[in-house]
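pipeline/complex-builder :: batch 7 item 3
reading input block
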Amino acid sequence: MAPKDVDPVPILRAVTLTDVAKAAGVSVATASKALNGRDQVKAETRDRVHRVAEKLSFQPNALARGLLAGRSGTVGLLTNDLEGRFSIPVLMGAEDAVGADRMSVFLCDARGDSIREQYHVQALLSRRVDGLIVVGSSTDARPSLGELPVPVVYAYAPSENPDDLSLISDNVGGGRLAAEHLIRSGRTRIAHITGDPTYAAARDRATGVTAALEDAGLPLVGDRVMFGEWNEGWGRGATRMLFANHPEIDAIVAGSDQIARGVLDSLHELDVGVPRDVAVISFDNWAILATNSRPQLTSVDLRLEQLGRLAAQRLLEAIGGTRHSGVEALACRVVTRESTMPVG
Amino acid sequence: MAPKDVDPVPILRAVTLTDVAKAAGVSVATASKALNGRDQVKAETRDRVHRVAEKLSFQPNALARGLLAGRSGTVGLLTNDLEGRFSIPVLMGAEDAVGADRMSVFLCDARGDSIREQYHVQALLSRRVDGLIVVGSSTDARPSLGELPVPVVYAYAPSENPDDLSLISDNVGGGRLAAEHLIRSGRTRIAHITGDPTYAAARDRATGVTAALEDAGLPLVGDRVMFGEWNEGWGRGATRMLFANHPEIDAIVAGSDQIARGVLDSLHELDVGVPRDVAVISFDNWAILATNSRPQLTSVDLRLEQLGRLAAQRLLEAIGGTRHSGVEALACRVVTRESTMPVG
DNA sequence: CTGAAAGCGCTAACAG
DNA sequence: CTGTTAGCGCTTTCAG
């Protein structure tokens, strides 16, 4: 409990450099130099100014600074899917990297509405952000914001314009990793149950999976990728269908952790042992799902936080003058858990 | 594909009011008045200025405005748990409400580290935010930030200082709602399996549940609340223990959707029908869990987005001069699904 | 080494 | 109705 011996509502004007200068008995110019470590100030004066600033808990007004400097030290983070779970890690990584450079982040959620998006972009520009990170809501390409007076980096969803810089997860590579992981674990009769084929993520992962199988001279059990929906129900249903026709299967690549939960559920009901009889690997590595299932799920991690961090880094580089363009794909990594343990 | 017929890197100085004024053949003062709808401008002039501003895509410099006005039109959103799923909805609600008032949001994640938190507060103050929303990572009370030159609202986790304004979900009331829902559905032999008792959320919900049972003259099956962990495993284990000793049970209040998933899992294995033999209600209403289980889960929704919206509203009121203090609890609501359908 | 002066972009008096 | 002037808080010449 904090004591309540302070003024009721401190409508005190924030302390300014002028206040500090006055209290230290110097001019604002000198105070400014002292506080900014300019070397044309006597050491004794510098210390005195610092002490006074400290005592008054002086905080330089970033607005005034920004106005003068022509740059605000802020970046805009424009998301379209705050509630979805994919934006958040990207956002965290970006916030972290940006903060490490003493810049602050404006957060805007356009909720997938391009009108709202346009509005936010204007608002951010009027706040003179030094750059913009646009986080998409799916891995499908999205319209470019076009030419803006500040650099823009697209993360998760690439821009449709190849002149923009986009950072994405390498879903094709992820598909490869998944299949190769199973193959290395000794599995040879592999099927792929995944989500909605209108999503690039589903198609890309499938491409990777089939390519890896082909390279290894292995068939895709069932002959074709089982596209469906991104939920447990589809995982359950697809698994039942699969087993009815292909009881010889010994591994399943699930397109998401959610689908995998459904797969595990059906395998349990069919009395198929995991990983003994069938190994299961999935995508997203969403801890809450992957580590609470029985057995725990091996999953391909998209490294979204790293993606966000990288996006911020590229943006800071661009702000610094080094602009890149094109699509940069970040490699995924497999997080191994029980569901793909090699047998015996 | 956008055409690439623009200058390579438009390092164009952003267009200022002076540019507009010049192009419109008026003084900056007149231009300012025209654009801000001050009524001391001839209609014809006003229109001309507007047209020119439009053509040059003029964006008023919010930094300059803020500097002059003494308020920046921004608020800080300080979270401690961006990756956790509870902050996000609060954040969304707050962002939405703040944006509706044409203010922008600075996002900072302190990751539960008070040093980092202090740093961010300083940074936000130096950016002259007009107010601050602090989103906690659990429902336990947290230390106050103390006296700050701008109003602060605590959301989700209340401040330890009752002189601060805190907005929380009414977990005790939520516990009551859960039990009452079961009782109204005709259940009379109710148990409560919940999470870690060191969490206020677990204790508060338990308080509500037991109070409602007492009011109804019903026993708590097993005599005491089963505290444990916030995960599926505990839900599974606790359910097995419960049934070994109390096969007469006809309803379970689970402390979270995750725990409920474990409960359902065990009930399934015990061949107990849900909701036929036992009804299950839980907390959080986390769609991904509650709607993907079999049967779908009835769950107490904490209305976190509304909580965020309310926090923003209160903050805006405080910025406007109307400060409140104390703890304001937002009522929960039950989202009914299959798991508590009345029998017959 | 220190201070006076100018100016970042904008708005609000106050004159004309 | 319009323009001139001043100043928000800060940094940066440029003289002392």
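note: Residues 16-18, 28-29, 32-33, 36, 60-61, 63-65, 67-69 of chain A lie near DNA strand D (CB under 10 Å from a C1').
queue -> next item
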